[in-house]
Amino acid sequence: MIQRLPFQYPGTADDVLRLRDLVREALAAIDFPTNREMHVLNLACGRADESGALAAALAPGRIAYYLGIDLRPDAIAEARKRWQLPGGIVDFRCGDAAAIGQMKELPPFDFIFIRHQNYWHDPAAWDRLLGNALAALSPGGLLACTSYFDREHQLLTAALQTRHAEILWNIRHLRSRPLADAPGKSVDRHLAIFRNPISR
Ligand SMILES: C[S@@+](CC[C@H](N)C(=O)[O-])C[C@H]1O[C@@H](n2cnc3c(N)ncnc32)[C@H](O)[C@@H]1O
Question: How far apart are CA 200 and CA 197, in angstroms?
Fold first, then answer.
């Protein structure tokens, strides 16, 4: 993944490096096979600042198709300008990530990522979104989610377990950067990784 534009905010470059290490360590610990081509989906991706970090965490695997979806046109426009995928397809779409079940042309995804999920904001929409994410996984595919705060992480985890997702990894990131203006929140504070037992 090639970054063509610097990040907008100071601190982002260090945050995504920490995220890269966090995801890489988790994938190694759960023995996720990365020596292959992969389809990667980034849901509610915003500016998708983490795209390069995700590609690095999945190495030596090569991303053949990378799709990011978010409701915010400004963020999607910025993501499109920033990221390029030589030898693969990068696709940023403005739209409802809860509707991926209706996007019939999409391939199954080996790795689905949701950074700083937003379950708290709209539980009904996020329940739909999570159900569709599990259904979009390829056999053996993983759904990885990070959260800003503890309660929201618990809600997401409970929602996925209600859908019988198998939890493979769930850690509090000890080096996550606290947000000065939001007590109790920090960048990639939790990481949890799930598998859909039905698509195993
Ligand atoms: C906390 S932000 C995280 C953005 C980005 N993943 C990050 O970590 O920088 C939550 C994002 O979810 C997006 N979002 C919320 N509901 C969505 C939906 N139904 N479909 C697509 N995007 C959604 C918002 O537009 C926002 O960009």
Answer: 5
Domain count, the chain: 1
* Cα diameter, the chain: 42
User: For ligand 1, atom 4, which residue shows the shortest CA distance?
Assistant: 46
Give the number of the atom of ligand 1 that is nearest the alpha carbon of residue 49: 9
**Within 13 Å and on the Cβ side, how many CA atoms surround 7?**
16
- Which domain, by its residues, includes 178? 2-199
Residue nearest to atom 12 of ligand 1 (CA): 44
Residues with CB under 6 A from ligand 1: 44-46, 49, 69-72, 75, 96-98, 115-116, 118, 125, 129
Q: What is the pTM of this model?
A: 0.97
Q: Does 5 score more than 80 pLDDT?
A: yes
Give me the CATH number covering residue 181: 3.40.50.150
Beta bridge partners of 142: 111, 195
